[in-house]
Write a structure and sequence with these properties.
2 copies of one chain form a homodimer.
Chain A lengths: L16 H11 L3 E3 L6 E3 L1 H20 L3 E2 L5 E3 H4 L3 H7 L5 E9 L5 E13 L4 H11 L8 E10 L13 E11 L2 H21 L6 E4 L11 E8 L5 E9 L3 H6 L2 E3 L5 E3 L1 E8 L1 H10 L16 E5 L4 H19 L2 E2 L2 E2 L2 E3 L7 H8 L3 E5 L1 H6 L1 E6 L7 E5 H29 L1 E3 L3 H7 L14 E5 L4 H11 L2 E6 L7 E2 L6 E2 L2 E5 L3
Parallel strand pairs in A: 3-7, 15-18, 15-19, 22-23
Antiparallel strand pairs in A: 1-2, 4-6, 5-6, 7-8, 8-14, 9-10, 9-24, 10-11, 11-14, 12-13, 16-17, 19-20, 20-21, 23-27, 24-27, 25-26
Chain lengths: 505, 505
């Protein structure tokens, strides 16, 4: 029997994937459960990741003509009632504010008092409250388009929560736009889906499939919902971002209408699109290994950590000075339009190296007394084994660091693409379909086949069936999928294109 | 009788200051009332201002060793009960979530259902919920200090609201730190007060007085509250930021304790400090004039707006091309470490120039057909009269624009300092004190004397008296005020230093 390799995270992915996920979050110090049911505390290392996601996406939104604004946290109950499908979709998970004071009760404990005439819902999404503003702002076609984004916290009362993936409160951005024509609104929906896909691939190094959701999986109130879907290392899909063409549904509900160029009063066409702190869950599960988090360099809070070897008292000051100089030199390097992020860890615990492995920093640089003499450093790449290090002249390392980070970034994307390709198959028989989604390994029941590209007859009944039997859903109808003649994998009825079936978060 | 000068804002400051304030916000398109009681919608121009405030402050926080994190929006009722003074201070203004679902009632209207076992308060501030985390994070003196900041939305159920100054929901940052010693915590409190004062003066061009609050005006649960106080143009004070030394009060309430170097279990010392979207109200009321907003260049969403004169069809294309080139050239200019913000407004309404005056952009640049030939531009400074323009060679303007903005920034601070100096007096008699705070002009009852530097006997009863009689409070005990022998302006009792009395927002 082969000796078991010691890993920094226990259990490993193969042993227990969901528990591995929680342990990576803990080991990287990204977040923790809060005492408030279903809410998490995002700790500094996790929040720094979110700040980087925000910074990059915000730049992409502004480059596509959007501006930020801020709308109220609370939505009057009567607003929620305006769009029937919308309220149907969110009613079961709304936190409701009913009182506006606290008073000491007979036993000295606080009790809510000052009941509100109209209860307020804590926003589960902001279409209705933003619609109320847009209906005032839009009078003429000259007032359109409105291209606004909001960074905000959202509350959806979830029964089963998992950090970053599904929490009662989460952070997100929500774009809300209004247009004079259907075509413009459809173009906007497509444009923002493209922005999300570019961000996922270029920055998160997370390959995604752009597709349309089936009617069953649509955003409540949308005409069409598009999504980016990524494959995690347990071969489940993560819906990572959505862009909705809302038609005139919300314009009618919120009375967003205008005089068009011909002098007719018509309703506007609206869109909404969002990504959330869920992306951090996707990043963890796309790249992490059995030693913890692996950060794509372009989003890492720090690209390099310097670890001076300070055991020997006589060389201590010299090594430290050398490392400070190296840190300063590296911080002069421009990476992705900003100074390189460099941490210098002078702590001396035995676990120091592993701490940074688990936190996922792309490059670890060791400097000891002997390296000083040679003016060289020892470099470890987080995308390789923890003990795989190489020596390099300091000047060469500094000159080459941007190239090295580019190589790591590209490598992570390639690795994830290969993984997805290896676990995506075309399936044309029902037996094979059922077998594909049946776990092979009793010890780790989560692991199954992956993504199945199959023909589908377009009916919700089929979706119901595979959901009930296998907990499998149609993740999306890929936008770049070719038209081809085929037969529905479940019913044998004719179909003209393949969709992606998968298990999902 | 002198002809009345036409102003862009009606009424003028002298006519009705509170209404002028609302009209400036409307004219600059900064924000508007939302349909949700007491909550505002922050519109793109207002939010861009907040983004700049965030960006600069965030950099200052990070430069002083702080990192960002995020804690839950909801606070369990039992947490609020832990610190007696704290709950006393906030109980009357807490929005309370009591249910987590909506259901259609008998009449089809939605009603809250799914009652929570323990109601949740929407955070009015986060000491108690953050304290719960810190008590887990801190075990040993090696875990200290904890230096964390959070950008978040806050809810305080206010009965009378005014946009930016006092709203039910507002945006803010709250720093929360924990330290091993009292001295360190006191130093932190002072450091962050200094950061706020520097930000106010260097970026907002808003002079502030750093001081300590009296016991009456302290943050609920604090040992000492420090503040920055600014004088608005109606001579009222605006408390613009606070920094609290919390002693061990919250550490005891939240059980934040640790083993010190001597092996003793002791409580930590904590601080908290915050500024909010209220700063935008301060900025409006410090610099705005009867033509609207005046933005300090360092925080303006755009420093320059280019206004091409496009009346003549034959020169239209040429003028436009020239302006695009000028915009590109200006965007190459580095201002405060970033590219200069430049708007190019090609709309042709008659109100175009006034739109940008009201929005407060520091420099307006007109380019018409005749300017083209001379390769020159017409420049108007927002800190001068709307018709006060000067011609300048394009290249000279571009080369000198950073200097010009620096001059405007410095000038705004000087003007505000002079205004404050002109309306701050030392008063040593009770009669004079009462007269100073009695409005002189029946038509504009808000306008009174300003700040009064007076001796005070240190007793709350005096504060009560002047509050009841004049609606005047002690704004702060200035930190840089000299010790001097004196007698309390109200009671004649001995006093060793002057405090600042004023009316306030």
């Amino acid at each position: 029997m082969a000796e078991k390799i010691k890993t920094a995270i226990t259990p490993t992915r193969a042993e227990n994937y969901p528990e591995w996920y929680q342990q990576v979050i803990k080991a990287a110090d990204l977040a923790e459960q809060s005492p408030v049911r279903g809410c998490m505390v995002i700790k500094p290392w996790g929040y720094a990741l979110w700040e980087n996601i925000q910074r990059v996406l915000d730049g992409m939104f502004k480059a596509t003509g959007h501006r930020n604004a801020y709308f109220p946290l609370f939505i009057p109950l009567s607003f929620m009632e305006k769009e029937a499908a919308h309220v149907e979709g969110f009613a079961k998970e709304c936190a409701v504010v009913t009182h506006h004071r606290l008073e000491a009760g007979p036993d000295g404990k606080l009790i809510p008092t000052g009941e509100l005439e109209e209860p307020l819902v804590v926003r589960p999404t902001s279409e209705t409250i933003i619609g109320a503003s847009y209906s005032k702002w839009v009078q003429s076609y000259r007032d359109l388009p409105i291209l606004i984004n909001q960074w905000a916290n959202i509350v959806r009362w979830e029964m089963r929560t998992r950090m970053f993936l599904r929490t009662t409160e989460f952070l997100w951005q929500e774009g809300h736009t209004a247009h004079a024509t259907e075509q413009e609104a459809r173009e906007e929906t497509a444009r923002m889906l493209r922005v999300y896909a570019d961000f996922a691939e270029q920055f998160m190094a997370m390959p995604v499939i752009c597709g349309e959701k089936t009617a069953n999986e649509r955003f409540p109130g949308a005409v069409t919902t598009y999504c980016i879907e990524a494959m995690m290392q347990d071969r489940k899909a993560l819906q990572s971002g959505t862009s909705h063409f809302l038609g005139q549904n919300f314009a009618k509900a919120s009375d967003i209408k205008f005089l068009d160029a011909a002098g007719q009063t018509v309703f506007a066409w609206t869109t909404s699109w969002g990504v959330s702190t869920r992306l951090i869950g996707g990043l963890i599960m796309t790249h992490g290994d059995d030693d913890g988090l692996i950060l794509p360099p372009r989003l890492a809070p720090a690209q390099v950590v310097i670890l001076p070897v300070l055991h020997k008292e006589e060389s201590r000051a010299e090594v430290l000075a050398y490392c400070h100089k190296l840190a300063a030199e590296l911080r002069e390097v421009q990476y992705d339009g900003r100074p390189l992020g460099v941490e210098l860890d002078v702590s001396e615990g035995r676990e120091r190296n592993w701490t940074w492995v688990k936190k996922g920093v792309p490059l670890r640089v060791e400097v000891g007394p002997r390296d000083l003499a040679a003016d060289s450093v020892f470099v470890a790449r987080r995308d390789r084994g923890a003990k795989d290090k190489f020596g390099q002249k300091r000047a060469e390392f500094v000159a080459g660091v941007v190239g090295l980070l580019g190589e790591i970034q590209a490598g992570l994307l390639e690795r994830a693409k290969s993984f997805r390709a290896a676990n995506t198959v075309r399936i044309d028989s029902k037996d094979e379909f059922y077998s594909f989604f049946t776990p092979k390994n009793a010890e780790n029941p989560e692991i199954h086949g992956g993504f199945a590209l199959c023909h589908w007859n377009g009916e919700g009944a089929v979706e119901e069936q595979v959901k009930n039997d296998l907990n499998v859903t149609i993740r999306c109808i890929p936008l770049d999928g070719p038209e081809e003649e085929g037969r529905c994998v479940i019913t044998g009825q004719p179909s003209r294109r393949r969709v992606i079936f998968g298990k999902s978060y």
